[in-house]
Amino acid sequence: MTVSNPGDRDDELIEKLEHIDKWLNSISHVSELPQTKPKPASAQPPQKQQPILQKPSPSPQRFSSQKPPQYTGQRPAPQKPTNQPHQRSFPQRSNRHRGNRSNPPRPGLQSCPAIQNSTQFHGRPQSKPVVPFKQKHQSAQTGPYLQKQSNNSMNFRKNNQKNRRFSHRNNVVQTYGKPVQPAPSQKPKPFTFTKDVLRIIPLGGFEEIGKNMMAFEYEHDIVIVDMGLQFPTEDMLGVDYVLPDATYLIERKHLIRGVFLTHGHLDHIGGIPYILPKLGFPPVYGTPLTLGLVKKHLTEFGFLKQSKLITFKPEDHFRAGAFDVSFFPVTHSIPDSVGIVLDTPCGRVVHTGDFKFDFTPSGQPPSNLQTLSKVGDKGVVALISDSTNALEPGFTTTEKVIAENLEKIIEETTGRLIITSFSSLIGRLQNIIDSALKLNRKIFLTGRSIENNIAIAKQLGYIKLPDGLVQDIRKLNKYDDAHVLILTTGSQGEDMSALARMASNRHVQVKIKKGDTVVLSASPIIGNETAIFKVINGLCRLGAKIITNKDLGIHTSGHGKQEDLKLMIRLMKPRYLIPEHGDFYMRTAHKELGKQSSIPESNILILDNGVVAEIRKTGEVVKTKEKVPANYVMVEGPDRSEVASHILMDRQLMAENGAVVVLFYVQAKTFRLRAKPLVESRGFVFFDLKNKVTDEIKKTGERAFVQFLKANPHKVNKDALLVYLAQTIDRALVRMLNKKPLVLPILIEV
Length: 750
Hints:
The chain is α/β, with parallel strands linked by helices. It is 29% helix and 19% strand. The longest helix has 25 residues, at 687-711.
């Protein structure tokens, strides 16, 4: 029955309430419930049809054997309808209808037939229930509003101006005729999904070495491969780490089915403690050693209990939404490395991770060509392959050669021997331990990462460490130099690493002296060359002998060179190739290798971070024009806070041209200058130019202040004033000195 106007609704309400009163007045005991008769038609308003009231069934859970003391059995006579029906109709019962705890609803009200059987209540149809707002994929507009609920759901909150109602249970605002949308913070953001399309979304690792992270999305399912970090470049002043931008995934975190890790290097797992909490802690899958390293980082951040870590072996496979995920072992510089196979409705995609072909590795099985060939025999639509060494010809050197050369150095060295390498090179560390045991040298560890990694690898069985071989670094001076071997961190010249502290004579236990030999069993990561040379120079000044990979083959890469990459392409036989993990010129070189391996140039996609590629059900792979957020996310400090881009820009300005602070003393009431501006600078100009430049800054600042007040005589926006002063002084300094320091105007009201 439709309601034509509010007055009609009020008439109907009054009559229904009269029926309710008569029915409640007749209740005396639970066991005796009288039959309520419908009101005669003659007493009803014209053109109104009153619902027939049925006798309710007894319900011991809803009725009490005694009447509530608050209820007298009488109600005020109904008043004439007005434009405010709710205030007029039952002002004395408002608390009961609202479900006030101090005055609970009258027993039996929920079972009243007028409410149970009515097709309308206050002009509102009940044909469809209200869908709770908590449901993810349904909005508040799914149907008419008032739902048959308990007393809390029926209660309403008055708003005389807008006639608004609020359902506390469903957290939605109700109005006459149509719903009011919830606040933007509560409404889930709608997403559009393309059917039968697999989306490949690189979020890191496609324009740099590091912060590897890639998402695969098929309709309502997302899986993530790796979640790494990157070490900062020289121009990122004060930054500790750089993370991939996870904005796209944070907005769709309810669609994430899992995070799959290829291996345990920081550029593939280092971002997990920072990003995983923002994604709601989806399950993380990895091999035993990989998850052992992940657990260490999560424990340091206090997130281990909330995390769901699932260990797998290379022969396992998982179902993650629309994805069937399986693995194959690869050889890398750390054990337990795998490639990942994603079987989707659009075909098979292979992600190699970091790999090389090594048939005599250390601490891990050799490369298995037969296993890789079986993966390719089932048909690979797209191969996403490592490009780090795409510019290097030949095959990557086997780890066996490195082990032999290191043992030779240990055997021929007569004094103290200090070896630094990547702390994640578990196989190489095992070779050094074996050589030290064989040649009667005690091992001393210094550096947190190498101590932690050896402890984790020993616990999981990846390193065999005889008792008594490793000694406390504080007992170093008790042993003869010929029987000492120090394993340390700092192969990349990190300022606070153990080797850097030795080079600057800041290490507490190890003091470099003449006769010491330092072996750098690592190659410089791009961007770290200057820091490494600084450490080497410091060690030489203190009398140490330096041995690097240029002197003897004591390091090999964990990434395949050109022939390794071409062999992987031939084994996988992909229709499309997507080079990853490297700068643009590295991936371009990988593209040339793909062309040499009979892949058409049109089937090789060079993507950048954030650029989306799509695989259609027809097997076609296309590079779209869509680009998701893929900015640098920089973190620093003990609280691991993010560094905004403007902060980094300010640091660069101060580092290059110094800083200028201009103080403006103004009257609090009139906002007029009380004196000329005061100028202070640091790292800006030489002393002989300071007075001249300072006078010019004062004149420019005072003139700009007066001009701004003339243009805004009635109301002064302090923020706008500060921006105007900074820009004016900045332009003046560029014209005068061709320098652009950080300009900081400050208002002091007196």
